[in-house]
Amino acid sequence: MIQEIVLTALMSMTPTEKKALDNFQARLERNGYDISQYIEDPRFGIYRFKKGKHINYADTTESWYMKRDSIEKCADFIEEEYYWLKKAENEFGPSPEHIASQLQLETNCGQYTGERSLLNSFISVYIDRPDRRNEFYRYMTDFLDLFADTTDNIVLPTDIFKINGSWAGAYGIAQMMPDVLKKYGKISDFDGDGYFDPMNMPDAIGFMARYLADHGFGKNALGATHDYNSGHPFYASSIGKHAAELMEIMENRMRIPPEKIRYRTDAIIIDMKTPKYDSLRDMKPAAIMPQARPLGKNRLFNRRLGRR
Questions:
Q1: Is residue 155 a contact partner of residue 149, using CB atoms and an 8 Å limit?
Q2: Are 201 and 81 within 8 A, CB to CB?
Q3: N or C: more exposed end of the chain, with fewer CB within 10 A?
Q4: Is the pTM of this model over 0.90?
Q5: CA 229/CA 234 separation, integer angstroms
Q6: Residue 184, CB half-sphere, CA atoms under 13 Å: how many?
């Protein structure tokens, strides 16, 4: 999802942080989860955070999101993924403009899905934020369940340290937290290949549309969008504004007449041979178009008379 705090560095642990990690590890072990092999891996580490203010994404002086280039790229995205966006609208309700605007804010329409190891992220936030430890304990257990379970056809990298996402542990094009992925991954195979892949665009589009519909998008679009990321005060309102401007751009694009198509006739007549008949009336169509489908008797008679 959208960052509330800013990642500063990957650091060695202080005694206080080590104590919090030991507490977390013991808590997991009591419920049957062993992460010792991951803690001992050289790729393990924690991040330290500092608080930052919430960015108003609807303000062009603070964010890239509402700039013209961002909206135009979303319009290009709609044209590229129109089949899946329209399918999602028909099945669940959210418009292509809304889905595109929300995916743009989440991951730049799949261009940036996050580079942090989710394993390290969950542990880091657990250590850094005592007020959110119960929440991130649940995220961690759901994440470990997903990684261990191969029966739900949810596609994940086989190396747990290569499951990368946001600082808070959101994963995929639509930035799903583990509890949401665990619930919706079983029912969100949108392209029908038998798997739900959070890095697959059709699956991400289908999931987002379904999630919004389940949270009342048809009656309260702003509220359903807010539920998707309730931690950011400008999230839903920014998406609504972006989608409205995107809709205007799409309407303007639809008004542009299609480019005229010019056909060349030389390629059609280059292989034609001079008919060996006294008149066109006596010439068989097969003599001019050898590949033409044979016509029925009545149709051929009418064709010779100049009828349709």
A1: no
A2: yes
A3: C
A4: no
A5: 10
A6: 25
CATH ID of 5-255, from 1.10.8.350, 3.30.200.20, 1.20.120.640, 1.10.1660.10 = 1.10.8.350
Helix crossing, 118-128 with 15-30: angle to 10°? 110
How high is the mean pLDDT of the chain? 84
Distance CA 129, CA 308 (A): 79
β partners of residue 11: 46
Question: Per-residue pLDDT tens for 137-167?
Answer: 999 999 999 999 877 799 999 999 999 999 9
Amino acid 72 reads E
pLDDT in tens, 170-217: 999 999 999 999 999 989 999 999 999 999 999 999 999 999 999 999
Cα–Cα distances in angstroms (integers) from residue 77 to residues 74, 102, 111, 112, 250, in the given order = 5, 12, 11, 14, 11
The DSSP bridge partners found for residue 176 are 171
Q: What angle do CA 259, 110, 120 make, to 5 degrees?
A: 170
Domain map of the chain by residue range?
5-255, 271-304
Contact 20, 127 (CB under 8 A): yes
Helix (H, G, I), strand (E, B) or coil at 50: strand
Question: Cα–Cα distance between 296 and 292 in angstroms, integer?
Answer: 12
Where is 11: in which H helix or E strand?
strand 5-11
Place of tokens 């029925």: 296
